[in-house]
Inverse folding.
């Protein structure tokens, strides 16, 4: 019979037992906040460790933002007609920056399952004693903070290239619009994150298709009125349409915050509906994945 | 709360089937054929007593990992019931998750993150505060033999044996009273395997934990387990202490009976040692 290995030395596992704290219902709120923070800290550490990729992504984002904005600067030369170049530059800049902000939030949330599959940690994370609400809260907090910082850095670089006149802009109103829009994209991101859960091999690509459709119909670089009628109807379903229209009203026309309500309420409503809907759908999808064995890393 | 519960796990008549995918849009369905299913776990029943190291021994594809996933709330059983310290794994999954942790055959880490960062993430998920988690993680990792600078290096720079020890340490950081070890030494070299086995033994001896260990390594089952269930094609073919299992076979070809002999006697098969189940 094989010899039993012997335990050696002092064990670090005999110190004060934290189980009582973990299982004490009075600590529920603290536990929830700590568990949510786990995702913020983890994602921050991942960004730090993948700094090379982040630098490449930032450079790419700055280059594409500049390319799009220069279309506005060059419009007079392209058309041969006198245009308000400052207006056009701002129009395109708002589109590209708002889209960048919302898309990063959407990506961070919708791809959380795909990332965990890729890393091989999905089962570890999903068997932790936390609710999906706690999970999403942490993921969302990081997504909004990261997206805001990333977008501000791009904006900081891009404004160096253009003489922008923001004297008449209602920046406070624009900020309110942006925050309302982020709520709706949090909900859409949660809904889209179901795809990598249900389709281990193709789910991540499906979220990209979804994002591309929103880009097409939401009037990011052009007014939705130029779209075919059926696409204009779809545009009214996208919260990004209202966020962009509200942002442009606030920045380009200096519309007061009180007059932004027609743009604000659809964006807020989309958030209020899509976040709980997303959590419910995710819960059902997780249950289905557990029934069919799709949580497993290789699907 | 759990001091008076002496049975850690009760598995009663549990069955789990998986549908086989037959290509795009399930062509077989259109042809009228019934969708094919694989019975991964077939009406299995057993109990694990508190404080035991309970082994589940079986070849690749015998249903070991499926069984562990069912107990770990990562799969839902088609029929039957599983309880962990009295909590039903389906109806009370959150209560079960607070009591358990799992180490899988592939060390599930964020490979770019350091051992410390991975352990901190795990500790926070289980509600530990940052300071406490950092202190405990550092203590555990240095106890494992990691130098201080190695603690902060990416996991991908560690050997697989060390990664697996860190995985077990991460599981114990949250002080589970049931630890599920799913082939923790598969793919490790003999030295790393012995180190991991010694580590598991030490943890069991120094901590109030029940360990359920799956393996297709008979030496490992022999070294670590108090009782062993032999599983084949999703069914338990024998369950007993090591000595009792060997006694079933008697002396074989003049050498001392091994678990391999027991397995062959009971199933007519050899255990195959491969990397993945």
């Amino acid at each position: 019979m094989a010899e039993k290995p012997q335990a050696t030395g002092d064990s670090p596992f005999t110190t004060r037992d934290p189980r009582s704290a973990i299982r004490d219902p009075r600590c529920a709120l603290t536990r929830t906040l700590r568990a949510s923070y786990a995702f913020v800290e983890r994602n921050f550490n991942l960004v730090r460790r993948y700094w090379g990729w982040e630098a490449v992504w930032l450079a790419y984002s700055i280059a594409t933002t500049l390319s799009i904005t220069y279309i506005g600067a060059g419009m007079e030369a392209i058309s041969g007609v006198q245009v308000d170049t400052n207006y056009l530059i701002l129009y395109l800049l708002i589109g590209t920056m708002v889209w960048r902000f919302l898309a990063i939030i959407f990506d961070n949330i919708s791809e959380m399952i795909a990332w965990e599959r890729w890393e091989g940690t999905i089962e570890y994370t999903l068997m932790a004693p936390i609710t999906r609400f706690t999970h999403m809260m942490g993921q969302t907090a990081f997504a909004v903070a990261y997206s805001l910082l990333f977008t501000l850095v791009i904006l900081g670089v891009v404004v160096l290239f253009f003489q922008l006149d923001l004297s008449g802009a209602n920046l406070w109103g624009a900020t309110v619009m942006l925050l309302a829009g982020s709520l709706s994209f949090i909900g859409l991101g949660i809904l889209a994150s179901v795809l990598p859960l249900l389709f281990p091999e193709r789910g991540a690509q499906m979220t990209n298709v979804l994002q591309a459709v929103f880009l097409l119909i939401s009037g990011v670089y052009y007014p939705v009125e130029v779209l075919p009628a059926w696409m204009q109807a779809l545009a009214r379903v996208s919260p990004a349409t209202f966020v962009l229209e509200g942002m442009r009203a606030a920045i380009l026309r200096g519309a007061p915050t009180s007059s932004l309500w027609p743009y604000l309420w659809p964006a807020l409503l989309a958030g209020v509906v899509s976040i709980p809907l997303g959590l419910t759908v995710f819960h059902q999808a997780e249950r289905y994945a557990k029934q069919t064995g799709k949580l497993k890393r290789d699907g | 709360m759990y001091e008076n519960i002496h049975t850690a796990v009760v598995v009663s008549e549990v069955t789990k089937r998986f549908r086989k995918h037959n290509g795009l849009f399930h062509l077989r369905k259109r042809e009228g054929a019934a969708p094919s299913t694989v019975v991964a776990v077939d009406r299995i029943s057993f109990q694990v007593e508190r404080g035991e190291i309970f082994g589940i021994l079986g070849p690749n594809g015998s249903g070991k990992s499926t069984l562990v996933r069912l107990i770990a709330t990562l799969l839902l059983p088609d029929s039957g019931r599983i309880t962990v310290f009295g909590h039903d794994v389906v109806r009370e999954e959150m209560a079960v998750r607070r009591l358990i942790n799992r180490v899988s055959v592939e060390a599930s880490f964020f490979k770019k993150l350091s051992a410390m960062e991975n352990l901190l993430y795990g500790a926070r998920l289980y509600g530990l505060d940052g300071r406490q988690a950092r202190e405990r993680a550092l203590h555990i990792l240095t106890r494992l033999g990691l130098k201080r600078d190695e603690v902060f290096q990416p996991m991908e720079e560690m050997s697989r044996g060390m990664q697996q020890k860190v995985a077990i340490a991460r599981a114990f950081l949250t002080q589970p009273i049931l630890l599920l070890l799913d082939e923790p030494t598969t793919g490790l070299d003999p030295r790393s395997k012995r180190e991991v086995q010694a580590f598991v033994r030490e943890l069991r001896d120094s901590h109030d934990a029940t360990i359920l260990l799956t393996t297709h390594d008979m030496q490992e089952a022999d070294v670590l387990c108090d009782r062993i269930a032999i599983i084949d094609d999703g069914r338990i073919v024998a369950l007993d202490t090591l000595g009792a299992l060997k006694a079933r076979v008697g002396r074989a070809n003049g050498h001392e009976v091994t678990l391999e002999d027991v397995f062959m006697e009971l199933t007519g098969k050899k255990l195959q040692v491969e990397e993945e189940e």
Summary: The first helix of chain A runs from residue 19 to 23.
